[in-house]
C-alpha cells in the first residue's frame, strides 16, 4: 500500500481569522488526530517570506503588495499556525513562497525522502492552496485525496464546484469523518 501524508495548508492564525467558520478547526483537528493515531505523517505548509520580501516581485498580483511595503516582514505572527491545530513534535512544517505548497518549499524533497506517494489535502483556501497544490501534486504523479470539509473557501459556491466537479477529476474527494473512519 502506498504511504500517505496529511497536508494541512495555510492554517496560519492570520489566514483562519479571515474565514469565520466555527466548525472548521474542530473538523480539521479530527483529521489531524486520526492521522497521528494511524501513524500517518502530518505535514504543515505555511506561506512565509524573508524580511524585505526578496522572494516577491511587484509584478505578482497576489503577493506583490508585500514587496512594496519595504523592509518590514510579517515575522513569526504571519507564519504562526492556529493554536487549535498546532504542530506537535514529529510533524513537519514547510514554508512556501507562493500559493502551491510545492512552490519555493522543500515539500517534494520531504515527501520523497519519506517515500510518500499519496497526499490527503486540507487547508484554506479551497480555491487557493488546495487547488494549486492538487494540480501540481497530480502533475508530480502523487495519489490524491481531498477532505472536502477539511477545506474552506470564502465563496461557498466556488468550494462546492471545486470539490464536486473539478477535484474528482484528479483526486478522491471525501469527508473528514469518512477518511478518519477508514484510516
From TrEMBL:
Transmembrane segments: none annotated. Coiled coil: none annotated. One of its GO terms (molecular function) is hydrolase activity. Residues 5-177 form the Isochorismatase-like domain. Keywords: Hydrolase. Signal peptide: none annotated. It holds the Pfam family Isochorismatase. It comes from Phytohabitans rumicis. This is Cysteine hydrolase. InterPro entries: Isochorismatase-like_dom (IPR000868), Isochorismatase-like_hydrls (IPR050272), Isochorismatase-like_sf (IPR036380).
Amino acid at each position: 500500500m502506498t504511504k500517505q501524508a496529511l497536508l494541512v495548508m495555510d492554517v496560519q492564525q492570520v489566514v483562519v481569522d479571515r474565514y469565520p467558520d466555527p466548525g472548521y478547526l474542530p473538523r480539521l483537528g479530527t483529521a489531524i488526530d486520526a492521522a497521528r493515531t494511524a501513524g500517518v505523517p502530518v505535514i504543515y505548509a505555511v506561506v512565509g517570506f524573508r524580511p524585505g520580501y526578496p522572494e516577491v516581485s511587484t509584478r505578482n498580483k497576489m503577493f506583490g503588495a508585500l514587496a512594496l511595503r519595504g523592509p518590514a516582514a510579517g515575522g513569526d505572527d504571519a507564519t504562526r499556525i492556529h493554536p487549535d491545530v498546532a504542530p506537535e513534535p514529529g510533524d513537519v512544517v514547510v514554508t512556501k513562497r507562493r500559493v502551491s505548497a510545492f512552490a519555493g518549499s522543500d515539500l517534494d524533497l520531504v515527501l520523497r525522502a519519506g517515500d510518500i506517494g499519496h497526499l490527503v489535502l486540507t487547508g484554506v483556501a479551497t480555491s487557493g492552496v488546495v487547488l494549486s497544490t492538487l494540480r501540481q501534486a497530480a502533475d508530480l504523479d502523487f495519489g490524491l485525496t481531498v477532505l472536502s470539509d477539511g477545506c474552506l473557501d470564502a465563496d461557498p459556491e466556488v468550494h462546492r464546484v471545486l470539490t464536486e466537479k473539478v477535484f474528482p477529476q484528479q483526486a478522491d474527494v471525501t469527508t473528514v469523518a469518512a477518511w478518519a473512519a477508514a484510516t
